[in-house]
């Protein structure tokens, strides 16, 4: 196979042969890999077709700067090459299986007295790997069966002949309880051990019938020799195999090896179920999601899943049954849709699994949405609100000994802080420490502005305080004519009591309730925001006082300097030119002269 390169303008020059094409963008990044029965026809369709092409495909086509093609012998070869390339490079516009799990294998080690144990890493040369298993439970069931049937060692010792001869090891507990025959001390020879390994291989391959025949033969031979205890031993092993096979979903012993694939889709995702049938039993069942990247058809999505899942689970079944018809035939893949019989029942079972998976995903998505709004719904119930409070605003005042009174408003949307909607307020109409009047002012200012700007009012107003602060806020709403249109409550800190307007008695929400915790979080956030603002205001005023004590520097000049430099310290560190640019040369010189005098005194 040899690669050739083309530009998008040269698509007509592509050969009319099967192969794989790769699209690259400006940065030489691989953005898409596709396969085609005819490279010329397939690639041309991207650049010629104008109708019925979705936005994502158009966007991809606009990014293409170079096309690389590789010719192969058949469409099936193209399919396999495409799968390998996508698995290796994962281009951004290709369909990707949503399945990042590393599946477990059982490895039969390549050593004296081989071991069988689970692993998730395949290391070339370590041994023969069986799997992958769709679940750890399925793998453990097989491993448990093998260890129940055969005396295969579980230790990781190096049982090379010279180490056994030198008597380097002693038997462990597994020997004493009958799970191992002690090859580490030379108590079991390797030929006898390998007989068990050969039968374990049959089970690992899914050939339970051969293992059953093996135990049945030894049971009958023991019975003929009147060795009834030995015969019972083999009968118990046979029963174990029978029970294990009974737990497997037996389809029909006449159906040997078969793969079943079914697909159901929604707007964005395809759900594909895979059943692997081995010797009449289902030994793998798996459902995966494929996220649609371009304008893929159901058959394209299903074919992608077939190739990748068969590759992932090492399936070489000669027959594949599906629930949708394919227009084309693929040499090397016997794909068909059964209409009657056991194979049709298998197809229905697979389709049922795919639909169930899709339904569960939809319910899970609904649960996420429900979980997101669960607390808000609970708060709605606790406060008997007509609407879910997905927009809450909370007010708090802050002043220390009556100085620098300020207020804050925080906003929560869908139960989360909406920081961009937070507001600070300087109290303008109230003199002295009067929380009630301050609350009337800021609530009035907030909602007067929202009404003037024709913006949406909140679904719930929370006031940090008890009856007094709540009554003052209600007065502001009445003045604006919106009292009764917006629910409003007060939350008192001492006992976390909830007050409603015109109701003398508060309600108490369960202290462990998520809705109360949300109200507390909103209240605490408003308090934090108000305190931080108050601290900043006091600091600036203190800085301003230091500056206005200097002759020639008034409040306006002080404010300009602080707005630009943020602190007196930074003003002191500034150069004459920097200060002069803000307040002029004369004032800048007076300011720096004052600083120098204070340094020397």
UniProtKB/TrEMBL annotation:
Domain UvrC family homology region profile, by residue range, is: 333-477
PROSITE patterns assigned: GIY_YIG (PS50164), UVRC (PS50165)
Question: What Gene3D superfamilies does UniProt report for this protein, alphabetically?
Answer: 5' to 3' exonuclease, C-terminal subdomain (1.10.150.20), GIY-YIG endonuclease (3.40.1440.10), UvrC, RNAse H endonuclease domain (3.30.420.340)
| GO BP annotations listed | nucleotide-excision repair; SOS response
The GIY-YIG domain covers: 16-95
Protein location? Cytoplasm
Keyword rRNA-binding applies? no
For this record, an example GO cellular component is:
excinuclease repair complex
Keyword annotations for this protein?
Cytoplasm, DNA damage, DNA excision, DNA repair, Excision nuclease, SOS response
Q: Name one GO molecular function term.
A: excinuclease ABC activity
- Keyword match tRNA processing: no
Give the matching InterPro entries. GIY-YIG_endonuc, GIY-YIG_endonuc_sf, GIY-YIG_UvrC_Cho, RuvA_2-like, UVR_dom_sf, UvrABC_protein_C, UvrC, UvrC_RNase_H_dom
Say which family it is in.
Belongs to the UvrC family.
Name of the featured protein: UvrABC system protein C
Naturally occurring in which organism (per UniProt): Belliella baltica (strain DSM 15883 / CIP 108006 / LMG 21964 / BA134)
- Gene name as annotated: uvrC
């Amino acid at each position: 196979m040899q690669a050739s390169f083309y530009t998008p303008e040269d698509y007509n020059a592509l050969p009319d042969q099967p192969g794989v094409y790769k699209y690259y963008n400006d940065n030489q990044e691989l953005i898409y890999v596709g396969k085609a029965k005819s490279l010329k026809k397939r690639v041309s369709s991207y650049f010629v077709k104008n109708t019925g092409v979705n936005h994502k495909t158009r966007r991809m086509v606009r990014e293409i700067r170079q096309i690389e093609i590789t010719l192969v012998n058949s469409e099936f070869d193209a399919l396999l090459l495409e799968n390998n390339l996508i698995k290796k490079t994962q281009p951004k516009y290709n369909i990707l299986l949503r399945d990042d799990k590393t599946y477990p294998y059982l490895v039969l080690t390549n050593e004296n007295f081989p071991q069988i144990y689970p692993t998730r890493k395949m290391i070339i040369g370590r041994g023969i790997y069986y799997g992958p298993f769709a679940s750890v439970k399925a793998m453990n069931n097989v491993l448990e069966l093998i260890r129940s049937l055969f005396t295969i060692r579980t230790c990781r010792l190096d049982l090379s002949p010279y180490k056994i001869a030198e008597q380097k090891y002693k038997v462990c507990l597994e020997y004493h309880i009958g799970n191992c025959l002690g090859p580490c001390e030379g108590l079991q020879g390797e030929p006898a051990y390998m007989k068990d390994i050969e039968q374990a291989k049959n089970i690992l391959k899914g050939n339970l019938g051969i293992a059953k025949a093996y135990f049945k033969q030894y049971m009958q031979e023991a019975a003929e020799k009147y060795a009834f205890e030995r015969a019972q031993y083999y009968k118990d092993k046979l029963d174990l195999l029978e029970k294990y096979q009974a737990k497997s979903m037996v389809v029909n012993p006449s159906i040997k090896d078969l793969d079943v694939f079914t697909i159901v889709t929604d707007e964005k995702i395809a759900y594909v179920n895979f059943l692997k049938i081995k010797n009449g039993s289902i030994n793998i069942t798996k459902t995966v999601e494929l996220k649609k990247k371009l304008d893929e058809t159901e058959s394209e999505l299903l074919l992608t899943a077939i190739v990748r899942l068969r590759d992932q689970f090492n399936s070489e079944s000669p027959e594949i049954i599906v629930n949708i018809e394919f227009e084309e035939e693929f040499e090397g893949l016997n794909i068909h849709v059964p209409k009657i019989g056991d194979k049709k029942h298998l197809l229905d079972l697979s389709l049922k699994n795919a639909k169930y998976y899709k339904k569960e995903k939809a319910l899970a998505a609904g649960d996420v949405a429900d979980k997101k709004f669960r607390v808000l719904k609970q708060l709605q119930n606790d406060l008997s609100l007509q609407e879910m409070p997905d927009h809450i605003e909370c007010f708090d005042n802050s002043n220390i000994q009556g100085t620098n009174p300020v207020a804050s408003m925080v906003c929560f949307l869908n139960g989360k802080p909406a920081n961009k909607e937070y507001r600070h307020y300087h109290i303008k109409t109230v003199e002295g420490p009067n929380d009630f009047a301050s609350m009337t002012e800021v609530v009035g200012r907030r909602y007067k502005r929202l009404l003037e700007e024709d913006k949406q009012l909140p679904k719930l107003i929370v006031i940090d305080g008890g009856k007094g602060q709540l009554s003052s806020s209600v007065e502001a709403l009445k003045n604006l004519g919106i009292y009764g249109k917006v629910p409003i409550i007060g939350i008192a800190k001492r006992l976390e009591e909830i007050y409603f307007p015109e109701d003398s008695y508060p309600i108490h929400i369960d202290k462990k309730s998520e809705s109360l915790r949300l109200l507390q979080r909103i209240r605490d956030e408003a308090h934090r925001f108000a305190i931080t603002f108050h601290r900043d205001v006091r600091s600036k005023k203190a800085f301003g006082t230091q500056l206005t004590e200097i002759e020639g520097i008034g409040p306006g000049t002080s404010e300009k300097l602080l707005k630009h430099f943020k602190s007196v310290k930074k003003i002191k560190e500034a150069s004459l030119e920097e200060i002069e640019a803000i307040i002029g040369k004369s004032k800048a010189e007076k300011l720096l002269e004052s600083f120098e005098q204070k340094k020397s005194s």
